[in-house]
């Protein structure tokens, strides 16, 4: 019996093709990325409930009426997942559209935000921090932010310390929103950002930090936050908040985010 089992296992292994291995690896990777997406989100409980329904659906195949009733719950569960993960799905499709299949993109590499602009932003954050003036500075990367800029006042002003400090100075018309910066231009100010709905956020997390996290969860923008209460400088990127940064740390992170090759047209292969 043992020899027969060995022969069967050997036959199965010999029948596996390279394409089968590749298929398994691709499916495994997709499932893995999906689990990472679900981890710590409000969709986790929904997917667990859907899995329970699927298991019960399989286990009750011999009970036609109950099986039919459970089957009616599958489609609403899938629709609920789509609704819950709408921001994540939108961002994933945007990245796929920019990068193409397997992250390959052919085209012109746009000039990164100049060192002068990063210096102006860091100088502004440091000055606002010293004065305990709250601020939200959104640095646009690849994702479009038209929906955000529409909520504020169009400026199209050159990025400078004077302009940014003036925008966030207390009691000015635009101080209570976010300033959106694209390249070396302050596109709009007084903009409203979506708040984060991450479970487990500390109750001490301020509204500015929640807004910064919310936008970074939905787009690839980088958001510089200055706390009005403590003057601490923070940076939100990809749904993660780096709090209490020193000037050098903030500058280094921004430089790393916006570093790019030189400005000539080329064939570029990369994955964000």
Name given to the CATH architecture of the largest domain? 3-Layer(aba) Sandwich
What CATH first level of the largest domain would be assigned? Alpha Beta
Low-confidence stretches: 98-110, 261-272
- Helix- and strand-based class? alpha+beta
Measured between the Cα atoms of the first and last residue, the distance is 53 Å
**Shape by Cα distribution:** elongated
Average pLDDT for all residues: 79
CATH evolutionary superfamily of the largest domain: DNA integrity scanning protein, DisA, N-terminal domain
Adjacency order of strands in the biggest sheet: 3-5-4-2-6-7-8
What pattern of helices and strands is seen along the backbone? HHHHHEHEHEHEEHEEEHE
Helix fraction bin: 40-55%
The radius of gyration is 25 Å
**CATH overall fold name of the largest domain:** YojJ-like (1
Q: Percent of residues in beta strands?
A: 15-25%
H/I helix tally: 10
Number of domains: 2
Q: Total strand count, please?
A: 9
Largest sheet: 7 strands, mixed
Write the layout of secondary structure elements.
Layout (H helix, E strand, L loop, with lengths): L1 H14 L2 H21 L4 H17 L4 H21 L1 H14 L4 E4 L7 H16 L4 E5 L6 H4 L3 E6 L2 H8 L9 E5 L2 E7 L15 H12 L3 E5 L6 E5 L2 E6 L1 H12 L7 E4 L3
Parallel strand pairs: 2-4
Antiparallel strand pairs: 1-9, 2-6, 3-5, 4-5, 6-7, 7-8
Helix pairs in contact: 3-4, 6-8, 6-10
How would you explain this protein's 3D organization?
The protein is elongated and about 80 Å long. Helix 3 packs antiparallel against helix 4 and helix 6 runs parallel beside helix 8. Helices cover 51% and strands 17% of the residues. It has 10 helices and 9 strands. The C terminus is likely disordered. It is of the alpha+beta class and 272 residues long. A hairpin with a 2-residue loop joins strand 7 and strand 8. It folds into 2 domains: 101 residues, no CATH class; 144 residues, DNA integrity scanning protein, DisA, N-terminal domain (YojJ-like (1, 3-Layer(aba) Sandwich). Strands 3-5-4-2-6-7-8 form a 7-stranded mixed β-sheet, sandwiched between helices. A two-stranded antiparallel ribbon has the order 1-9.
């Amino acid at each position: 019996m043992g020899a027969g089992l060995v022969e069967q296992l050997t036959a199965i292994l010999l029948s596996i093709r390279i394409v089968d291995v590749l298929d398994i690896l691709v499916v495994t990777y997709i499932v893995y990325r999906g689990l990472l997406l679900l981890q710590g989100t409000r969709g986790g409980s929904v997917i667990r409930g859907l899995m329970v329904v699927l298991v019960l659906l399989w286990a009750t195949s011999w009970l036609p009426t109950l099986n039919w009733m459970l089957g009616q719950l599958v489609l609403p569960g899938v629709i609920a997942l789509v609704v819950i993960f709408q921001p994540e799905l939108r961002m994933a499709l945007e990245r796929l559209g920019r990068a193409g299949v397997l992250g390959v993109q052919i085209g012109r590499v746009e000039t990164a935000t100049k060192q002068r602009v990063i210096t102006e932003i860091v100088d502004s954050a440091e000055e606002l921090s010293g004065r305990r003036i709250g601020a939200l500075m959104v640095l646009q990367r690849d994702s479009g932010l038209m929906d955000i800029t529409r909520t504020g006042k169009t400026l199209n002003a050159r990025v400078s310390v004077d302009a940014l400090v003036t925008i966030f100075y207390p009691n000015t018309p635009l101080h209570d929103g976010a300033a959106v910066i694209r390249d070396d231009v302050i596109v709009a100010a007084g903009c409203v950002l979506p708040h984060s709905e991450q479970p487990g956020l500390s109750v001490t997390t301020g509204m500015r930090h929640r807004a910064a996290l919310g936008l970074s969860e939905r787009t690839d923008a980088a958001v510089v936050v200055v706390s009005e209460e403590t003057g601490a400088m923070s940076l939100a990127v990809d749904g993660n908040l780096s709090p209490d940064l020193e000037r050098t740390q903030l500058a280094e992170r921004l430089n790393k985010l916006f570093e790019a090759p030189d400005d000539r047209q080329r064939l570029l292969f990369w994955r964000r």
